[in-house]
Amino acid sequence: MRLRKSLVMLVYLLFVLVPIYWLVNMSFKSNREILGGLTLWPTTPTLDNYRVIFTEPTWYMSYLNSLSYVSMNMLISLLVALPAAYAFSRYRFLGDKHMFFWLLTNRMAPPAVFLLPFFQLYSAVGLFDTPIAVALAHCLFNVPLAVWILEGFMSSVPKEIDETAYIDGYTFPKFFIRIFLPMIRPGIGVTAFFCFMFSWVELLLARTLTSVDAKPIVAQMTRTVSASGIDWGVLAAAGVVALLPGIAVIYFVRNHVAKGFALGRV
Amino acid sequence: MKTYNNKAWWLVLPVFVLVAFSAIIPMMTVVNYSVQDIFDPSTRYFVGTEWYREILVDPRLHDSLVRQFIYSFCVLAIEVPLGIVVALSMPRRGLGVPFSLILLSLPLLVPWNVVGTIWQIIGREDIGLYGWTLNSLGLDYNYASNPRDAWITVLVMDVWHWTSLVALLCYSGLRSIPDVYYQAARIDRASHWAVFRFIQLPKLKNVLLIAVMLRFMDSFMIYTEPFVLTGGGPGTATTFLSQTLTQMALGQFDLGRAAAFSLIYFLIILLVTWVFYTAMTHNDDKG
């Protein structure tokens, strides 16, 4: 039984890792080697593909663009979601359940539905092709997500703590910032991670709301694909670099990944 | 117990304003478009429900809707059982736990277009490991020209991308089962199947509900991965709802039709979300 279990796990992990290995493998090959035939590892490893990414402005600027709208989105989402999540976890109020459901529908709504109106809304207010447009558009699914995750973490803090603090003479803002926020620090970290993640991986809205100045990395990659000759090596290298931020932070939130992906409901 | 206090609305207000700006205003625009025929910003006619009547008999909608339902069904049918099996095979303690958790999460952290790129590369018969292997085994596999191969590739890609999510959710559900349950089962000499059926599965009900909802919704709005992998082709074999809609709205600027399409799409989503939400909160209330 033990053995069979480990075997299943091993086979599945292999299934997960082989495609990623193949991407990394290709990113270290020259295009001649890639198209010359199948090799299981780079016979003449080269860093040329990465050099292209870090020296050509269209490539590294697109990374910076992505990072800028992703961090803006993360900040906005956290700032508005923190008080709202507190309200949902502590109080009942008029229409609270409907509000919560309505937030959920926004997480579930297909971005494609909002494509056209977003395009026109942000063109009308002059924000088209700026990182802030993408950051605001991504709030559509990230704010509900942040509220749901934070609400889960806040509900596990006993209510007596609030009451004691109020009796001790704390005002709400002071209590919230000085006592409550430090208590749910892991929750805030996890929420930030998931806002970061979902904004980082999204393509459709990010591509539609930008053209030249704010072009994100995900769009830059698809546009290279549609060009006549595909530069496989550079494409693979760009993919690897796009993977890195997620891998860099996953270690810190490993125990909470399930909670985050489940909208805080586990 | 939560106290009843309507002042809590002040705390929710920022979220309300922000989400209203990015959801209600655009939604109203869509409704507005769906009942008008627009030639240019100054020439527009009110056409009532004409777009709806047209789109409801549009073969493009029918085809991609059918394709979408088959696809979402396949995704659930493969990923949920597989996810449960993987979760049951997770190591219980030791170094293996964080190790497997991190490796399992990997596909979830890959940008969606990179997922497409990865499978685009690995499926090719000349430079990709899988495509090359299949072809040298004598199978005539080519996802770019054969609709069946394209379908299978998109499906396997989705399984690769999202089964970990189901597995992680089930794993955290399993972890919440106290050891006493297992000890009792051992005393009763319960079989592995009985342990699964009467101890683990009931405890997994809640997380499975979430997993099924998330996987259904996300596969129902899938866009990026097939777009990068096959571009919806060959022909329209892997063109799902979101892509049909995007083509209509941005490719052909067919505003009225696209708007009516969006609303129908959205209503389906709303209905399904409501069903799941009711089931979820129903469970919450019970404990």
TrEMBL record, chain A:
Instruction: Pull one GO CC term from this UniProt entry.
Output: plasma membrane
Keyword Transport in annotation: yes
The ABC transmembrane type-1 domain extends over 63-253
One GO term under biological process is:
transmembrane transport
Membrane spanning residue stretches: 7-24, 67-88, 100-120, 132-154, 175-201, 232-253
Q: Which UniProt keywords apply?
A: Cell membrane, Membrane, Transmembrane, Transmembrane helix, Transport
Membrane topology, from the record: Multi-pass membrane protein
Pfam families found in the cross-reference section: BPD_transp_1
| InterPro entries on file | BP-dep_ABC_trans_perm, MetI-like, MetI-like_sf
Q: Where in the cell is it found?
A: Cell membrane
Per its UniProt entry, which superkingdom is the organism in?
Bacteria
Instruction: Provide the family line.
Output: Belongs to the binding-protein-dependent transport system permease family. MalFG subfamily.
Q: Which PANTHER family match?
A: ABC TRANSPORTER PERMEASE PROTEIN, MALTOSE TRANSPORT SYSTEM PERMEASE-RELATED
- What protein is this chain from? Carbohydrate ABC transporter permease
